[in-house]
Amino acid sequence: MLEAARSTSSNNGMRSPLSARRPELFSWLLALPGTLWIVLFVGVPLAAIVMFSFWKAGFSGLRPEYNLLNYQRMLASSSFWSITLWTYQVLLMVLAGVMLLAYPAAYFIWRVIKDERWRTGIILLCIVPFWTSYLTRTITWLPMFGREGVVNSTLKGLGLIDEPIEFLLYTPYSMMLALWFLYIVFMIGPLYYSMRRIDEDIMSAAAVLGANPVRVFFLVVLPMTKPGLMAGALFVMVLGMGEFFTERVIGGAQNPMLAGLILRQIDIFQWARASALAVFLTFITLATVAIMLRFFDLRKV
Amino acid sequence: MLKDRKPNHGYIRRDLLKSGIAAGAALGVAGLGGLTIVNPARAADRMPWDDLPDGESASATGMQLRTIGLGVSVQDRFLNEFQRRSGHEAIGKVAGLTPMITEWLAGGYRNYDTNETNANRNAALWDNGLLQAIPVEKVKPWAHARDLYTSTSALGYDAGTGWPLAEIWVDPSTQREFKLVPQFFNCDSIGYRYDLIGRDIDSWGSLVDPEFKGKVGIFNDSLLTPGWCAGYMKHAGLADIKQTGNMSNKEVDTVIDFLIERKKDGQFRAIWEDYGQCVNLLASGEIWLADAWNPVVEDVKKQDVVCKYAFPKEGFTAWFHGVAVAKDTPNFDAAVDYVNFCLEGWWGAQVAPQGYYSPTTTCENYLKNSYRTDPAGKINDYDWWYNGGASEDPKPGWPIDGRDTGSFAKRWNNIMHWMVWPDDPDYYAERWNDFLSA
Fold this sequence. Notes:
The complex is a heterodimer.
Chain A: H1 2-11, H2 17-52, E1 56-58, E2 61-63, H3 69-76, H4 78-112, H5 116-127, H6 134-139, H7 141-145, H8 150-157, H9 172-196, H10 200-208, H11 213-224, H12 226-241, H13 245-249, H14 258-267, H15 271-295
Antiparallel strand pairs in A: 1-2
Helix pairs in contact in A: 1-2, 2-15, 4-9, 4-12, 9-12, 10-11, 12-15, 14-15
Chain B: H1 9-27, E1 31-32, E2 35-37, H2 40-43, E3 56-57, E4 64-70, H3 76-86, E5 89-95, H4 98-106, E6 114-118, H5 122-127, E7 131-132, E8 134-135, H6 165-168, E9 177-178, E10 181-188, E11 191-193, H7 194-197, E12 216-219, H8 224-235, H9 249-264, E13 268-272, H10 275-283, E14 289-290, H11 294-302, E15 307-309, E16 316-326, H12 332-343, H13 346-351, H14 364-367, H15 381-387, H16 408-412, E17 415-418, H17 425-437
Parallel strand pairs in B: 2-3, 4-5, 4-6, 12-13, 12-14, 16-17
Antiparallel strand pairs in B: 1-2, 6-16, 7-16, 8-9, 10-16, 11-14, 11-15
């Protein structure tokens, strides 16, 4: 943008060079605090992590002895690759689940609820749980799903089961459920707002031209809510890439994802290898976002 | 006599002391706002760590004692009592995990006088020259040390590694200088829900036994968990392992591969990471058995849950916790007073109800006159915690009469290995990570 501004001003012979330089300087100054903040609090730590990833670490501490061992070990480890695969598997399942759960919900708010106050109220209800911390929302599943938890004791009380259902906690299933609930609001919001932008006349027009409601949905509504789905998907993927706590607390710490693997390296004081993993995670997160953006330009939302 | 001291009591006293001492000294008044300050004449014939009558406090020395350690030993109740007795201002810094302290100190943290640590982490600090030796004659209560810490023929001595003597002494054969002064110690086994299992557990193998599939919790620790598993495998003839506490890389591979296989079968319900979590998992019945620590079991029992501590046929895993003095401390005298205080007896008596033992026998003076554990009030605390108790019932209907797993001698006659610092801890860590990720 700055490049563009400079080229137009220099190509424009009507303006004096002095007046052209002043807005340029001003816009640089405007960008300065933000740039400084990003350099200090994002650039420097990131550079430090990249640097540490080439150091050595162990129980005796982190030592600046440059080597490629951390990366070699990481890339040669089969468990690392299976964890990377598992991370994507989980995220795709989270994404699918969240989309399937969020779409009817958003559609319901848009088409069925007509009163604007009710709409706001229901959207607010979706957001309220997010006023508590991420940790609290995750830990809440423990008393819910435990062997002696709410679900098991209710089912037992109703005489439906004799033995507690054990897959409810510390399994990939429980982890998935917790993740759906964690991320669903990031999908409902963008979806609902993209639905609201649909001109109802277009739908009437489709109906008048003979399309049944199913065709209207698949040929008109769905394509027009793609921006919302895409925005929600980006939220879920980027947040999910950093997911470490749910897996640990609800998944029983037995099926780590990449971010959890970083934590496990830190637990055993392998700072250097944790850094190499962090660099890798940053890289594939950016790559994932880039690929998603190739399919859809978010700026159109 | 064992006195109950309310937490934070000492904070108030400390503030009073700070504001009142100068005025009190100037006026020559001994009693000040209900508290007595020991006068210098009487203080002369007592050691700074000796007990004081209730309500009395030593006058401030102007010296500080800054100690660093885990919450298990660095606690207000201990620091307040030390300050009351010695007059040194006691400041504690608490870390969440032992390795964290190692990181701090190795990373250049110097604002401490004493470091309280599990012995297996001390070598890293000693070898880096961060600590100083303490002459044995400066530690007065050591005259009453248990032979476990002085003799190679004591119950529990491990000839293979030389532990515990090897980590205590600069030279174990002469025993003139401490590297690390033992503070408290115990041996670990398995905590289990007797009410759910219905019988006694007597082997580490139960933790990997398919009978308890999905009901086991194990500790997220790259050294301790492979350690007990190795002990089980060796005893059961599943693997040929020389020293289960200090394995070769190949032996570590064997043990971890076995654990990975068990994990993939769904053996482990949860991998516990801190003390409170283990208590909750056991108390709620989420897990039925775990490589739990003695105090975990005592805490679960306090919730009226019938939990027991196993007597494993492979043996217990032994450890000790000690105090070391920083090399550059400006408060050497206060540091030595603190070391003495920890062994004087009061400290050891305080931790006995958590199942911990004191390296000196001086705690008897306090425990033998106290009857706080036996519900019937007949057996004194020393007989309960050191001799195994054997009261009628700790509670009506409970399957435990006295201390779980019996007397000091019975336990220490059954040691699998000491939790030593292995030759290649990084390899343990690397393979443990494979286990966690499998």
